[in-house]
Amino acid sequence: MKPVHIVILVVISIGLAIAISFYGDTSKYVCFNEADEIMKDKPNMKLHVVSKLSKDKPEIYNPQVDPNYFEFYASDTAGVERRVVYKHAKPQDLDKTDKVVLIGYSRGDHFEAREILKKCPSKYEKK
């Protein structure tokens, strides 16, 4: 083989390796009901759920007992409300956010969030 052919094969194999690594880490934006359906087939698939905090339901966070356990309720874009368990400290200014994106896994009776992305209210929207 010519050196040019070897270089081309190496570049193609690196490109395929990068494409495969990105494919394995993709996640989907779903609602809680879809997350439950996906959980049946793929229990370890990371999912994104756009939701709004349920301010009328209680939050459980006691840093003296367990600083890495925060439990709250959120409703998705379809209006389905679900208990959310976040095994980290309560995010700062979470109560001031309009919407949150929960990244994690559906676990039957609750959603286990691994990350919480906060969407702050826009200063350009009319009140």
Task: Characterize the structure shown.
The mean pLDDT is 87. The protein has a single domain (28-119), classed as Nucleic acid-binding proteins (OB fold (Dihydrolipoamide Acetyltransferase, E2P)), CATH 2.40.50. It contains two helices and six strands, in the order H-E-H-E-E-E-E-E. It is α/β, with parallel strands linked by helices. The protein has helices spanning 3-24, 32-41; strands at 28-29, 47-53, 70-76, 81-86, 99-106, 110-119. A five-stranded mixed β-barrel has the order 2-3-4-6-5.
What are the main properties of this structure?
single chain; 127 residues; alpha/beta; OB fold (Dihydrolipoamide Acetyltransferase, E2P); five-stranded mixed β-barrel; 2 helices; 31% strand; elongated
